[in-house]
Amino acid sequence: MHSAPVIDLFGISWLKVDVASILAILVTSVIVFILAYAGTRKLSVENPGKLQNFLEWVVEFVRNLIASTMDMKRGNKFVMLGISLIMFIFVANMLGLPFYIVTEHHEESTFLGYVIEATRGLQHGEHVEIGWWKSPTADASVTMGLALAMIILAHYLGITKNTKPYFKHYFEPYVFFFPLNIIKEISKLLTLGLRLFGNIFAGEVMIAVLLMAGAFGILPLIVWQGFSIFVGAIQAFVFTILTMVYISQNTEHDH
Predict the structure, then answer these.
(1) Which of 69, 74, 91, 208 lies 20 to 30 angstroms, CA to CA, from 126?
(2) Residues in the chain where the model's pLDDT stays below 50
(3) What does the alpha-carbon distance between residue 232 and residue 237 come to, in Å, rounded to a whole number?
C-alpha cells in the first residue's frame, strides 16, 4: 500500500490534510458541474440531446427514489439534494478506478511549502511511495463528513418542521427507551459514512493488489474494474436513499 500525501496545514500538527482527497474532491465537483451545465445549456423539448436525456432519467430516478420514502408534497424540495448526492458520490466512487498516480521519494519532500508527513525523517537508502490519486470516498474523513452533514440536516428539519413529534419519538414506545433511541441515531451516522467508505476503500485495495501482480493480474483487474463500477453505483444509491429515509423519519408527523 502507498502512503497518503498528508500535510500539516498552517504548520499545525493536529490540522492534517490529505492532499489526494482534496484534489479528488475538487475534480469530482468540477466534473459534476460540467455534466449539469452541459446537459442543461441547450434544453430542447422536441430534439433533446443524449446528455439531456440522461439527466432527465437521473431526475426521474431520484424523484421515484424520494417518492418511495415520503409523499412528494414534502419530497419535491429534496429532489435537487438527491440529484447532487447521487451524482457527486457516483463520480467520486468512479474517480479512483482508471487512474494510478504514484511517486517515489528518497528524501523529505514538500507540497506547496508543506512537508509531506510520510517523507519526514527519511534516512539514506530509505524510500516511500506516495499515492496522489484515489476516490475521495475511499477516505473515511470525507464519507463521515458527508454523512454528518446529512444527519445534521435531517435533525435540523425535524426540529424546525416537526418539533413536537420529533422530540416525542425519542421516548417511544416507552420513556426508558430513550438511551436506545439515542444510540440508534448515533448508529445512523456511523453506518451511513462507514458503509460507503468501507466498500470503496476495499475496492481500491483490491485494485492495488492486482496491479502489483503484474501480467497475472490483468484479467482479474478488468473483471474487478467492471464490478467496482457496479458497487460504486449501488453505494451512491444506498447513501442517497438512506439520507431521504432519515429526513422522512424526522419530518413525518406520524412515525
Answers:
(1) 208
(2) 255
(3) 9
Task: From 65, 133, 93, select the one nearest 235 (Cα to Cα).
Answer: 93
According to DSSP, residue 12 is labeled -
What distance in Å separates the CA atoms of residue 82 and residue 41, rounded to the nearest whole number? 21
Which residues neighbour 89 within 8 Å (Cβ) at sequence distance 6 or greater? 137, 146, 196, 235, 236, 239, 240
Domain-wise residue ranges, the chain: 6-251
Residue 111: count of CB within 10 angstroms of its CB:
15
Q: How far is CA 241 from CA 65, 69, 215, 235, 236, in A?
A: 7, 8, 40, 10, 9
pLDDT for position 103: 75
In angstroms, the CA 92 to CA 236 distance is 9
| Residue from 65, 66, 70 nearest 254 by CA | 70
The residues near 178 (Cβ < 8 Å, ≥ 6 apart) are 170, 171
* 3-state SS assignment for residue 137: helix
Total-model pTM: 0.86
Q: Which pLDDT score, from 0 to 100, does residue 128 have?
A: 81
3-class secondary-structure state, position 132 = coil
pLDDT value, residue 205: 76
Tell me: cis bond preceding 173? Omega within 30 of 0 counts: yes
Tens digits of residue pLDDT in 67-102: 999 988 888 999 999 999 999 999 998 887 656 677
